[in-house]
Design a protein that fits this description.
Largest sheet: 2 strands, antiparallel
Shape: globular
Number of helices: 4
Distance between the termini: 16 Å
Strand order of the largest sheet: 1-2
Number of strands: 4
Radius of gyration: 15 Å
Order of helices and strands: HEHHEEHE
Structural class: alpha+beta
Helix content: 10-25%
């Protein structure tokens, strides 16, 4: 497999420059376009993901730009925009997860928003890569 879009996720190069951190970055499989990407969410959602994993079949309150699916970013600043404030013991807290993601064959779009893209691309592609015109931030 080849990386789609203008380049591999920036996190791929960053981790190579930093070297092994307990060797977890060295096991990425480039043949399936595996990368570490950021996911911003509320603290409660982060805890749920930690216990149950990602469940993309449920209707999400966030992440609707390209339809159903998990949303990730190479830029932690972009993921931070999706992080929501917590409640209760998590009041005034926000969460970001560094996730190991298999992108596989990627469908590339230059659109800023099109909720039907993922559904249309699902039969031929494993993931969607958004590189909107005029934006330097990419989402996976």
């Amino acid at each position: 497999r080849k990386w789609a879009g203008k380049s591999p996720p920036a996190t791929v190069g960053v981790f190579k420059e930093l070297g092994a951190v307990n060797d977890f970055t060295q096991d990425l499989d480039q043949n399936i376009c595996e990368a570490y990407l950021w996911h911003g969410c509320s603290p409660l959602t982060a805890v749920q993901i930690g216990h149950e994993g990602f469940c993309v079949k449920h209707q999400s309150r966030a992440g609707k730009r390209f339809g159903e699916g998990g949303y990730f970013a190479e830029d932690p600043g972009l993921a931070d925009k999706y992080a929501g404030a917590g409640e209760g013991i998590y009041r005034d807290c926000y969460a970001m997860l560094l996730c190991r993601v298999i992108l596989g064959r990627q469908f590339v779009t230059k659109e800023f928003k099109d909720e039907s893209i993922t559904q249309r691309a699902r039969h031929l592609y494993d993931s969607t890569l958004a590189e909107p015109r005029g934006s330097t931030s990419r989402e996976f």
